[in-house]
Amino acid sequence: MEEQERPTHMPRGPAKRTGPGFLNPAMAPARTRSVMLLADALEHEWLVKEQRPIRALDALCATGVRIRRWRNEIPAELQHRLRITANDLDEFALAWAQTSHEQHPPEQPVEHEPEDDRHGQTSTAVFDNGVHFQRLDARMAMVGAAYQWVDLDPFGSPIQFLDAALQSLSRTGVVEVTATDTAALTGSSPSSQARRYQAKGLVDAYAHDDAVRLLIATVATTAARLDKVVTPLLALFDGHHVRISLLVRTSKSEATAIRKSIGWRVRCKDVPYRFVQHPSPEDLPNASGPLWIGPMWHSDIAGRMTEERALEMCHPTAGDIELARSQGLTWDEEDIEHSAREVRRSVRHIAAAADLMSREHLLLNLDTLPRLAGVGGAPKMEKLIAALIEAGHAAARYPDLEPMLVTDAPFETVVQIVQNARESSD
Ligand SMILES: C[S@@+](CC[C@H](N)C(=O)[O-])C[C@H]1O[C@@H](n2cnc3c(N)ncnc32)[C@H](O)[C@@H]1O
């Protein structure tokens, strides 16, 4: 794109909003996971059964990178079951999306009708090589038709779109939500956090995890008001944004029970934290919440998000690169290697941590362990994980820029292992 510079290696921060056709290269890993999750839903039939199609809407598609990746990277044998609508209010961005899609069409043509308008009006969508493009306010697009998959990737907070997205979903659906208002979600901007999310934060080693849990709790309570219950599939703090993927089902009784999964994280003296339903007045200064305190990921689904699968699905083959080069791509060998590294990084540590993240676990920052264990230094992450597994527990690295680990071992056991490791290295 002419408005934006070519990304440097490993872009991580928010991109500058340089023109109407917005594309943030730091979101590439989130798009890779989105491709994999949607492919997994089609392949393993956990969203629709008997080879039925999935109707997917990218409600704020901008230049259409995500929808084009859905169409181009999800395996060919699943494509005929995928119906895609791309929506954005910005004329320039949408025209860009359409032109790119026309100039680089998917390998196999996919035909499908536009989604039925719930209010009986004729759809304004333009069908183009397997994608419906439409220019509507996202909220109109979402209340106007029923989808099984809705992606919300706004600038800043997703709050204004949540209600419509949840109403748009069929009885069973998936909503994927990005939030870049991390100052509000972590609590580093307490007034925005209180106003937007009705929560209180503590900016410490758990601020990122709290931000993810706060966004899940917000979607879960919004869903409960509509008699819907959420099951988190994957939820991450990724550098400068929070991204959550939730299965949403209509169920009054389960929506009522969602209160049990909302609580507070209290920092304690004997352990780094405990989740409680309601903090006591004495606990309140050391507590953040209300947050989601239930499972964060789906064990099987996140467990299939391996580096091998990511490369297989999302990294171009030698033939793809040759073809793209013949059309003007200027990648050299270093670019190809960099791209493969980035694809692997998008899912690194996810599969190994999936089981623990789907049940009760303890999350620890390696850098805080020496202070908590009263020793001079922490063992290496790999050694600590190996020692915890040797002691009969589960342990894994958690995907974060900080050195975080998850385990089901009691905190005293972790402290003991850190102390023993220190003694044996002295
Ligand atoms: C962060 S960008 C989306 C990026 C895109 N999903 C991607 O992966 O590259 C946000 C987009 O939302 C669009 N937008 C903002 N408000 C909107 C609204 N009310 N309805 C539809 N689109 C809107 C903007 O035009 C912009 O393209």
What is the global morphology?
A: globular
Just give the CATH class of the largest domain: Alpha Beta
Rg (C-alpha, Å): 22 Å
By DSSP (H or I, 4+ residues per run), the number of helices equals 17
The CATH topology name of the largest domain reads Rossmann fold
State the end-to-end distance: 56 Å
The figure for the number of domains is 3
CATH-defined architecture of the largest domain: 3-Layer(aba) Sandwich
- Quickly give the structural class: alpha/beta
* β-strand amount: 15-25%
The pLDDT mean sits at 91
Q: Biggest sheet: strands, sense, closure?
A: 8 strands, mixed
Strand order of the largest sheet: 3-4-2-1-5-6-8-7
Which ranges are low-confidence, i.e. pLDDT below 50, for 5 or more consecutive residues? 1-20
Number of strands: 14
Ligands, deduplicated: S-adenosylmethionine
CATH superfamily of the largest domain: Vaccinia Virus protein VP39
Q: Give the proportion of residues in helices.
A: 25-40%
